[in-house]
Amino acid sequence: MFIATLKNPAEIQSLNIKWIPENPNWEHFIEAWNYVDTPPLWRALLNSTIVTVSSVALQLLGSSLVGYVLAKHKFRGNNMIFMWILAQLMIPGATSLVPMYVLMNWLKWYNTYWSLIIPGVFSAYTIFLMRQYIITIPNDILDAARLSGCSEFGLFWRMILPLSKPALVALGLINFVGSWNDLLWPMLMIKNSDWFTVQMALSGLWSRTQYPYLHLAAGAITFAAMPVIILTIIFQKYLIKGWTGLSYAKR
Amino acid sequence: MKRSLIPYIFLIPFFIHLVILSLFPLGFGMFMSFTNYYALRPISEAKFIGLANYQEALNDPVFLGAIKNAFVYVLYEPVTILIGFFFALVLNTAVKGRAVFRTIFFLPVITSVVAIAFVWSWLYDVNYGPINIFLRSLGLAPVNWLANPHPIGGIVPIPLLSIMIMSIWQYIGLNTVIFLAGLQSIPKELHEAARTSGAGVWHSFRHITVPLLKPTILFCAITATAGSLQVFTEVYTMTAGGPARTTYVPVLMIFDQVSQYQQFGYGAALSYIFFLIILAVSLLEIRILRRGGMIYY
After folding, report:
1. Are B14 and A62 inside 8 Å of each other by CB?
2. CB-based contacts of A17, cutoff 8 Å, min separation 6
3. Beta carbons of A94 and B230 less than 8 Å apart
4. If you measure CA to CA, which chain A residue comes closest to B42?
């Protein structure tokens, strides 16, 4: 049973091809590409790419900057901010769902991508883990760079970010997966079907699909899952290290 | 520029973000939960109604049922952890192909719930689903996995159980990979020493492997609970909370308060009650972690 169900959508698709052998297999993918129409699959994939890539880029930049300041600068309030970050890790995301919905309407960010991108720029989770990582970078390197005339921002840009590459790649991937696969928040925020992310476009596809078209729906699902699967295979080392290593993050 | 000002300058965007998008929503949500605010009317029209929302929520059978369902759903966790542990033990002895297995095991974790729910809806299908085809071939009656609200043992409705089975399957891989990393961090010398002093496989498993992995087991169990209590996508895509609300969960209820009924005051009150429940569970678990000898932030 387990092995039979250990199948990603791609394998389901191939199962269907075996059941309908008279159809040449590759054309199914072309048909599947056009199977979903609210919005068209290419549009949904493009929307998701825009949202996910900008979310991940901004979050890595913003959260690692905060992580760097918390790890390497002594100033009044440092500890307080850090305590707040820890406290925020304990606050479930569902708590501010309702007020955020109202706030997004007031800011006129409802039905725009701002509402999907901006709230995640400073994430407690990413800030916390970046701080833990950056704190292990020796101070001597930073002092040497300072002495040779490097500006504080230059220090962050040219020293901290390159040195944190493993953590950035791991967190970037985890956030990419999270953002690409998210359904709840986009469902609340985006009303115009042209702007739907790919998960929104495909949610409920099962109940909309008649049995003879199952293979096409499965093909569409395959297209939607592909980017994340390809990234995971490319970066699998980083991801597994990140996911397991970061799970043990402790002070 | 004075160096002592630099941290504050770097943190300006963070502070703005913090105030507008973290602190304000938390406070505003609290405020709303004491009012009858609804449907994005001007906030000045919101009427202060004291604890009425909270009172209504605690007497709302739908909400209480949703909380019960979330706690039943969380029980998928110990099962997936045990199976993951077992797979890790098996894979740990395999020398070849470990990397390939790791990737395969990881795929369900990173694949979206929307995609997984599609596949499982097909597996569970009453007429053409492979599970029911298999049951029929054994001469058994097919089960309506997602639509028969009959509770098993009076507690777990079949559709909720079906969703739990899907989640068990999805997270086996994650737990396997984590346990595999834990197993490989146990020095081989320990097992060799045990063997030379005459301990059998079971003994060295019982007295070396299990105690050393206990923190990992606890950590896996505990970090996943808060997230699992907030289950949404699994339920939304598989059953939309039905049939007869047997799979309705708190986050889906809050979602409905916003997107369907536009009852923001009531939705905010539900969120805060649910927040307190999750907080209580997390604090309890941290105590268990501490007692288990784990350092926790």
Report:
1. yes
2. A23, A25, A28, A215
3. yes
4. A106
